[in-house]
Amino acid sequence: MTTHSRPTPPSVRQDADFIFHELTRSICPVCKLVIDAQVILRNNKVYMRKRCPEHGWSEGLMSADAEMYVTAAAFNKPGTMPLRYSTDLKDGCPLDCGLCPEHKQHTCLALIEVNSGCNLNCPVCFADAGQGFSLTLEEVERMLDRLLELEGEPEVVQFSGGEPTIHPQILDMVRAAKARGIPNVMINTNGIRIARDERFLAELEELRPTIYLQFDGLERETYRKIRGEDLLDVKLRCLERLARIDLDVALVAAIERGINEHEVGALVEFGINHPAARGIVFQPVTHTGRHLPFNPLERMTIPDVLHGIVQQTGGLFRREDFVPVPCCFPTCQVNTYVYVDGSQVIPLPRVLPVDRYLDYITNRTLPKVPSLPDIQRALEGLWSASAVAGSAKTASQFSCACGVSLDLGTDLSHAKKHVFQIAIKDFMDAYTFSVKQVMKCCVAVLVPDGRLIPFCAYNSVGYREQVRAQLARRAEEANHDRYEP
Ligand code: SF4
Ligand code: SF4
Ligand code: SF4
User: Fold this and answer.
1) Is 87 in the pocket of ligand 2 (CB under 6 A)?
2) Which of 304, 313, 347, 384 has its Cα between 20 and 30 A from that of 449?
3) What residue segments make up the domains of the chain, in order of their start?
4) Which residues contact 29 (CB under 8 A, 6 or more apart)?
């Protein structure tokens, strides 16, 4: 961070070395004050530049590919409003979460953090897991009821933490979500308990949640650096057990500059060939909570991961195979789907012009087929934060979308013949936080008082710390009340 006084005037007029792209609102990376922020394009990259009256100027990399960032704007779909809001307009975005009536999208995916404790102590942990709180089953049931009021028919709930599998009632929580008719219930886990606890595995087999499995690489060193210990064998054992009970798994890889960016291609190929994996989600490391030292001007972004996949998979993928997700702000995430039949791997955008169907602004001409609205709806379902890798809905949307172009046969669940999802999502940190994106966020954390707080606001603006302090205080008071001298 630097503080500038007025620059000394040059003797001749000079061209700026950047293009001023847009103005948004952000936060100071030091004190979190809400301030104006400029988005600028320089050397085909996108940067956020802003000035805090107290802490001076700061700059962070938003995207390593300006062309991709700018053209993504065409994929911005009109939002669908939630049934109810939980907060009023008072201090403006992002201080009124939420959702407040100014929010532009309902919640496709709701997260419930059931605890803050964990059986690991990763050097990279945006949740800053540790002592704090553990929700009761009754609280989670009330929160699920609240979600039904806010969303009507929520499609996806993800139990997260801390580490949700160490919560003694996590399975009852999954049951409670299923009992409320929520079709996709996910557990976001490091996989340790699944790898070690046979009884837990048997209960998962019966309940059948989707497993969102932390899986950062195939090299031991990656785990040592990101997770603090070599977890490769644990991860492989976990996956092998999940394959045995035929549970759907989305691999989730945190990618950090200089640590595992060279592994993205191998991860995709591993996922495509593993019988349990139905998709992989790449997340450039979010520098909130706990993280390694980093340079905000060199952080990993979506194009870095995407170009890595293209370069490291020997011609399997092209840049055009990945299309922005329109339900959130389209610079937040790109997706692709591949049809796998033995050794044949076909990305869906090779057989269908997905980008033309999902372009809401430039109105590019679409092929004249009678089933156009059905295809468009199917693609909107696939290119959504609520698309769950391996779910029956995803398989049927895939079949609908490419039924005209690919002979899929009937059994998409067969191990050799399946659909595999690849997503790259770049959560914002204090250097890149933009209200323009977060106002249309469709991923939110449901907190015990019934608010739904957009995920990047929850992590960057200070909501996580507030909620955790409140819940930790409550736990302390409860212990105090129980104390009998
Ligand atoms: S992020 Fe959404 S809910 Fe939060 S303050 Fe902004 S508009 Fe309101
Ligand atoms: S990143 Fe996940 S596994 Fe690691 S400490 Fe945090 S909550 Fe636990
Ligand atoms: S969580 Fe962040 S990156 Fe994801 S949709 Fe919301 S604002 Fe965008």
Assistant:
1) no
2) 384
3) 75-445
4) 1, 55, 58, 60, 296, 429, 430, 431
User: What is the torsion angle, in degrees rounded to the nearest 10, for the CA atoms of residue 316, residue 318, residue 413 and residue 210?
Assistant: 120
Q: Could you list the pLDDT tens digit for every one of the 485 residues in the chain?
A: 655 567 788 888 888 899 999 999 999 999 999 999 999 999 999 999 999 999 999 999 999 999 999 999 999 989 999 999 999 999 999 999 989 999 999 999 999 999 999 999 999 999 999 988 999 999 999 999 999 999 999 999 999 999 999 999 999 999 999 999 999 999 999 999 999 999 999 999 999 999 999 999 999 999 999 999 999 999 999 999 999 999 999 999 999 999 999 999 999 999 999 999 999 999 999 999 999 999 999 999 999 999 999 999 999 999 999 999 999 999 999 999 999 988 889 999 998 888 888 887 776 666 666 566 788 888 888 888 888 887 888 887 887 777 645 555 545 554 567 899 999 999 999 999 999 999 999 999 999 999 999 999 999 999 999 999 999 887 777 666 554 44
Question: Helix %, strand %, coil % for the chain, to 5?
Answer: 35, 20, 45
Q: From atom 4 of ligand 2, which residue's Cα is the shortest distance away?
A: 122
d(CA 168, CA 291): 28
pTM, 2 dp: 0.93
- Whether ligand 2 lies within 6 angstroms of the CB of 406 is answered as no
- Ligand 1 centroid from CA 431, angstroms: 18
Residue 162 near ligand 2, beta carbon < 6 Å: yes
SS3 state of residue 148 = helix
Out of 118, 215, 222, 224, mutate this one to test ligand 2's pocket (max ligand atoms within 8 Å of CB): namely 118
Ligand 2 atom with least separation from CA of 161 = 7
285 lines ligand 2 (CB under 6 A): no
* Atom nearest to 290 CA in ligand 2: 6
What dotted CATH number matches 75-445?
A: 3.20.20.70
Task: Tell me, in angstroms, the distance from the centre of ligand 3 to residue 94's CA.
Answer: 13
